[in-house]
Amino acid sequence: MKFDVLTLFPDMIENYCSQSIIKRARESHIIEVNTINPRDYSIDKHKKVDDTPYGGGAGMVLMAQPFVDAYENVPKSESSLTVMLTPQGKTFNERMCVDFTKFEQIILICGHYEGFDERIRDIIKPNEVSIGDFVLTGGELPALCLIDSISRKIDGTLGKLLSAEEDSFSNGLLEYPQYTKPREYRGYKVPDVLLNGNHAEIKKYRKEESLKRTRERRSDLL
């Protein structure tokens, strides 16, 4: 899986992707993460990428030319998906995450300031994705959420793919409670069923706890 990220702040992407599981996945060539700075494609002598909005209003709008030129210079694979991170997009969820793993390349376009010149959408025609009903300063954090989430689904990123399969939302439910050593801490004990070695009982317990937690915290999922 190859991720190409159009961003005015490439260090934000690189810093995160140089840590932990994502770092190991890159080093093992399971995923590839590249950054492209639209500022490098600006034809303005000062490398300007934004300007005041036509019609008036607060803030600055990202100009079409630097972003379109940057995008068009990204080599595209035959199986490529382009995603614009914006609050106006469809809300990212587990099903969408799984669908995205079917592509060989995902191009992520990160906005900033007051948003994109509409002609960027008109020309590129991206899939617009949001990570929730709130507004952030830019699209870098949402882009990293997608990179992290999608990468976990790719065989080899995690030590065991089963780890991802048992995460919350993977089966439509929230994950069951997890425990590790010691067996007792401040009066709280690990449930006996997890200590008896009976895998059938453990599986049943976890399913029941998963349903219980989902019912209590996210009944909308049921």
Descriptive report:
By secondary structure, this protein is of the alpha/beta class. The chain has 2 domains: about 1-160, 3-Layer(aba) Sandwich (Alpha/beta knot); about 165-220, Trp Operon Repressor, Chain A. The protein is about 35% helix and about 20% strand. The protein has helices at about 10-15, 20-25, 65-70, 95-100, 120-125, 140-150, 160-165, 200-215; strands at about 1-5, 30-35, 50, 60, 80-90, 105-110, 125-130, 185, 190. The strands form 3 sheets. Strands 2-1-6-5-7 form a 5-stranded parallel β-sheet, sandwiched between helices. Strands 3-4 form a two-stranded antiparallel ribbon. A two-stranded antiparallel ribbon has the order 8-9. α3 (about 65-70) runs parallel beside α5. The longest helix has 19 residues, at about 200-215. The protein is elongated. The protein starts with a strand and ends in a 5-residue tail after the last helix.
Keyword list:
222 residues; Alpha/beta knot; 5-stranded parallel sheet; 2 domains; two-stranded antiparallel ribbon; alpha/beta; elongated
Shape: elongated
Radius of gyration: 21 Å
Number of distinct helices: 8
Total count of strands: 9
Runs with pLDDT <50, length 5+?
Answer: none
CATH-wise, what's the superfamily of the largest domain? SPOUT methyltransferase, trefoil knot domain
Neighbour order of strands in the largest sheet = 2-1-6-5-7
| Straight-line distance between termini | 32 Å
Class from helix and strand fractions: alpha/beta
Q: Based on the structure given, which CATH architecture of the largest domain is correct? A: 3-Layer(aba) Sandwich
- What fold name goes in the CATH topology slot of the largest domain? Alpha/beta knot
Q: Give the proportion of residues in helices.
A: 25-40%
Overall pLDDT: 93
Please summarize the sheet with the most strands. Answer: 5 strands, parallel
